[in-house]
Amino acid sequence: MSVLGESLPCLKLEALHDGDRRSIFDGAGTHASRNVQYDQLTTMLRQEERDSYRCCDYLQNYPSGFDDDALSQGEKSINEACRTSIAEWMYRVVDHFRVDREVVAIALSYIDRVLSANHCADRRTFKLISSASLHLAMKVHFPNKWKDIGKLIPDLSQGDFAIGDLVGMEMEIVKSLTWLLNPATARCISVHMLSLLEMEIPASVLNKVASTAIFFVELSVCDYSFVTMKKSAIAIASLLNATERDIDVHLRIKKALNEIGCRIDWYEISFARERLWALHKQTCLASSRRSNTSFSMPDIPKTEDFPSPRSSHHFPGM
After folding, report:
1. Cα–Cα distance measured from residue 236 to residue 242, given in angstroms and rounded to the nearest whole number
2. Span between the terminal Cα atoms of the chain, in Å
3. Which of 186, 91, 187, 174 is nearest to 140 (CA)?
4. pLDDT tier at 67, thresholds 50, 70, 90
5. What is the mean pLDDT of the chain?
6. Mean pLDDT value across residues 138-157
7. CA-wise closest residue to 83 among 314, 306, 290, 313
8. DSSP state, 15?
9. Cα-atom radius of gyration of the chain, to the nearest Å?
């Protein structure tokens, strides 16, 4: 598996400012809390070994490599660019409503697992699956914000579906996932790994590392290359990248991994680290070229199949 051998998605995701991301560690770690975090972490690592939470390379089942300009949106098959566009759109929506970005990773987990087991007829159906997944993730994990976003989603679809379609698809998703709606995300795993070091490293350092690692994780959510990879591998790669210049924390993380007894494929970790650095560099360059930080995004170049949203309340056209 080679990073250079695969094209990078054109990401426009930006890291949250320090003031927009709440601190995770407060320096109040104890042996008791460490034991709890350790137990929760090992539970998450066991969860990702279950077939129900694994994803396959489902896009290989869809036609690609031909000119489908003559097809209608309802006839075009999905591709990696569709998934990237949906992920970035979700981040813009949740940022606008000041909802924790973790909900996007959860929604994408729903989407990837559903499409690993079911065929998606076209891009209009993919939009409905994606909208229903975000709606469901909000309802389960952030119910206090659910109504604010949920009631707007049919409007964001530009008339492609109504609230009844959304509710119907939500039920299909729940059945497909067999009610497994609490996936262990790479962000959650990475934070729990850092929490094992809370009594050894100042909270200020841990929060800085966590902020950087979480952005690496958020980049991975947008990139289809990480769909089949274990979330623990993404978490470890993100933490090692975030601590690359802090040898002490870097080594302590590796020591903690040995204590956990986590099965690590270092070849996979190496690929993930390189890929994440490449995405990070590309995203930083794209950010530096933009003259403003408005919620609206420029159109995707014509080489892509569809434009990015023009505003915060505009669903990606596909």
Report:
1. 10
2. 29
3. 174
4. very low
5. 82
6. 79
7. 306
8. P
9. 19
Distant-in-sequence, close-in-space partners of 220: CB < 8 Å, separation ≥ 6: 186, 226, 234, 238, 272, 276, 279
Residue 31: burial class (beta carbons within 10 Å; 0-12, 13-18, 19+): exposed
Instruction: Give the residue from 45, 73, 90 showing the smallest Cα distance to 236.
Output: 45
Residue type, 165: D
Sign, Cα dihedral of 44, 56, 102, 14: positive
Per-residue model confidence (pLDDT) at position 18 = 65
Output the pTM of the full model: 0.85
CA–CA distance, 238 with 131 (Å, rounded to integer): 28
List the structure tokens of 137. Answer: 């993730």
Distance of CA 295 to the CA centre of its chain: 19
281's enclosing H/E stretch is helix 266-289
Predicted confidence at residue 80, as pLDDT, reads: 93
Two structure tokens written together for 110:
């729903």
The structure tokens 């997944």 sit at 133
